[in-house]
Write a structure and sequence with these properties.
The protein is mainly alpha-helical. 56% of the residues lie in helices and 4% in strands. It has three helices and two strands. A two-stranded antiparallel sheet has the order 1-2.
Length: 165
């Protein structure tokens, strides 16, 4: 069976042909157009079937990725819990380091961190202000639809889409 592209091109070429006054050619052209149209519609249907299968595969991959991400997080939590138990054991037994055949494990003092007791009491010099601005597309669309001129914007047609029911 021909590709969707080939069938579309063939249909367009047949539709552009002029039978002139030749009734036999006109009848043959009409029959060929009908057959090509049927093949084209079959190919469109088959392509949508493939599209739906690919979408289902994508969803399955997303679900599997989510499952694996959750599993990886569980492994990370378990690994951290193991390290926490080792640190607790070394602190409880007052060991600075443990030398073994595979590893040397050393308990290190924590680095200094800034503990914020009351963020509202901080002077402005110690605060960071984060501001983000972005276009309000809904407001711009409503203004353009209402006939207003919005500098730097224009009303455009969106991307065509398919509805499969």
């Amino acid at each position: 069976m021909s590709s969707l592209y080939a069938l579309t091109t063939e249909f367009q070429q047949l539709a552009d042909m002029d039978a002139g006054n030749d009734e036999d050619f006109a009848a043959a052209l009409a029959d060929t157009l009908d057959a090509t149209s049927e093949q084209l519609e079959d190919k469109i249907e088959a392509t949508i079937i493939v599209s739906r299968q690919l979408e289902a595969d994508a969803e399955a991959c997303k679900a599997e990725a989510k499952r694996l991400t959750e599993r990886a997080k569980a492994f990370e939590r378990n690994a951290q819990a193991c390290k926490d138990r080792v640190l607790w054991a070394m602190e409880a037994t007052e060991r600075k380091s443990v030398k073994r055949q595979l590893f040397t494990i050393t308990r290190a003092a924590g680095r200094p961190v800034a503990a914020i007791d009351d963020a509202d009491a901080l002077p402005d010099d110690y605060l960071v202000t984060k501001t983000t601005t972005s276009p309000d597309k809904k407001l711009i669309l409503d203004a353009l639809k209402g006939g207003e001129d919005v500098p730097g914007c224009h009303l455009d047609a969106g991307k065509p889409s398919l509805r499969v029911s």
